[in-house]
Amino acid sequence: MSQRRALHRFYFFGLIGLVHAYVWLRLVPDLGAVPGLASALSVVLAASAVLIPTSMLARRRSAGRLLLGAIWLGLLCMGLFSSLFVLTLLRDLVLAGASALAWFGTGGGHAVLALPSALFVVVASLLMSVAGFVGARRVARVVRVDIPLRGLPAGLDGFTIAQISDIHVGPTIRAPYVRRIVDAVNGLRPDMVAVTGDLVDGSVADLVAHARPLMELMSRHGTFFVTGNHEYYSGAHAWVDALRDMGMRVLLNEHEVVRHAGQELVVAGITDYSAHQFDPAHRSDPQRAMAGAPAGAGARVMLAHQPRSAAAAAAAGFDLQLSGHTHGGQFLPWNFFVPLQQPFVAGLHRQDGMWVYVNRGTGYWGPPMRFGVPSEITLLRLVRARE
């Protein structure tokens, strides 16, 4: 097993090294006229090629300050290199087009664009990384959404749900960051709070102290939680116990009935769409989550980490599904690839008569970077639909 793990690490480092070599070969020679910049980029790429895989392999280990510092540097490099890589690919397409035009005698070709385009890639990548870092580290903005439901009883009209999702407490998201989220949610004075998975990226032993500020979430009917795929990477059973000890109501293919202003609201939650790959007993099951719910409930709300649970949730008879998982893509251009896996990327949608709201994530995963895709705390309000 150790030999296989060592081989996987060798391939991982090798792949990272190859894509870094590609960027170096495509940019540094053309930056020769700016020797200081060419040298600096070479150093950054060399460090990045080592720090990125090191940080990824170390993220779920207990970490002292030195290792945490290395992880931070590696994840910052990941954000910067992602931009460098994508923009370098786009630059190569532009240069190929320019060369083709020059061959037909209608343009200046590669030589004219080589230096300015290389400079553009470096400067744009730096600006995107700085803006993305600021966007990731600031407190998520509040997005207010009305959900019109037909037949909603008057007692539930105006019922509010504060949704947070995909915080990813881990090496770069610690207790102070989580506390700022809690303060923002509490300022909304919601009727209930929904946490739709991917709360953590690491073990209970390493991170429970940093998740503990969530105990201070305040609402009339409490905080409800469902597992995301990252809980299963991080020891889902231990986290379920820890979050219950912290006062959250963890819903594993089950529901609770909230009584509000004389009316009943079904709040159900399912395990992550992929949970059965880690524990067959945790297979996601919307029908089971609905079983035994009062037929006359004023509204039925499903918490499901992944949007692709929506078809099964609609078939089970829910009125609204709250999801996360996608991060809205988190930063360009990855938001364009999310639809390849999920039916919805962000915002409010319809699935077979059921509303689906996808939160873009309240934190971030991996590099501390959000560019073009802001994080959010969602305040959803149930309202009576106009007939």
TrEMBL record:
Q: What is the lineage of its organism?
A: Bacteria, Pseudomonadati, Pseudomonadota, Betaproteobacteria, Burkholderiales
GO biological process per UniProt: lipid A biosynthetic process
Name a GO CC annotation attached to this entry.
membrane
Q: Where are the transmembrane segments?
A: 7-25, 31-54, 66-90, 110-134
The record's keywords, sorted A to Z, are:
Hydrolase, Membrane, Metal-binding, Transmembrane, Transmembrane helix
Q: Please provide, alphabetically and separated by semicolons, the GO molecular function terms listed in this UniProt record.
A: metal ion binding; UDP-2,3-diacylglucosamine hydrolase activity
Domain of life where this protein originates = Bacteria
Gene3D superfamilies listed in its UniProt record: 3.60.21.10
Protein name as catalogued = Calcineurin-like phosphoesterase domain-containing protein
The record's Pfam families line, in alphabetical order, gives:
Metallophos
